[in-house]
Design a protein that fits this description.
Blueprint lengths: L9 H24 L5 E5 L2 E8 L13 H23 L4 H24 L2 E9 L2 E2 L5 H24 L1
Antiparallel strand pairs: 1-2, 2-3, 3-4
Length: 162
């Protein structure tokens, strides 16, 4: 069901590259038009903001002394290499490869930020009735979509095995 006969890794690497380009383009716009902390109200539940995250997800270790930049960069590079290896091993599995390409594009997008700036640029800010989700970016969105698709792929694989 989720296999193709071509088995080429190139479409998946192209998808990851498109994600990196879109992510970096949006971050360049934010860096060019917003100062840190600036915010634009869009709807009652969404703002565009400029936030710098020196940590990981949800600003984990953001207050550390700077070593976390290299730790998270190294983890991102290692993850990217592992994902490329996995894509080369399973390019015909469409949903699985789509998921990996999304995670790869997101991981590389955030690694580029860490290398260029020392932090990740976040700008999507959702909130509702006192609840506030930490700001995130397109790379984070791609990683989340990829993770959800990996879970779906596994559930479908288990179901097919029955």
């Amino acid at each position: 069901m989720f296999r193709n006969t071509s088995g080429s890794v190139m479409p998946w690497l192209a998808l990851a590259l498109i994600i990196v380009i879109a992510d970096q383009f949006t971050k360049v716009l934010i860096l060019g038009y917003y100062q840190v902390g600036d915010s634009t109200w869009v709807t009652s539940f969404f703002n565009v903001v400029r936030v710098h995250n020196t940590g990981a997800a949800f600003s984990f270790l953001a207050a550390a002394s700077g070593w976390q930049r290299w730790l998270f960069t190294g983890i991102g590079v290692a993850a990217a290499l592992f994902i490329v290896w996995m894509l080369r091993s399973h390019p015909g599995q469409k949903l699985f490869s789509f998921a990996l390409a999304c995670v790869l594009g997101g991981a590389v997008g955030n690694v580029v930020d860490r290398l260029l700036h020392g932090y990740v640029v976040d700008f999507l800010d959702f909130h509702l009735r006192g609840w506030h989700f930490p700001a995130f970016n397109l790379a984070d969105s791609a990683i989340t979509i990829g993770a959800a698709c990996l879970i779906l792929d596994e559930l479908l694989r288990v179901r097919r095995a029955r």
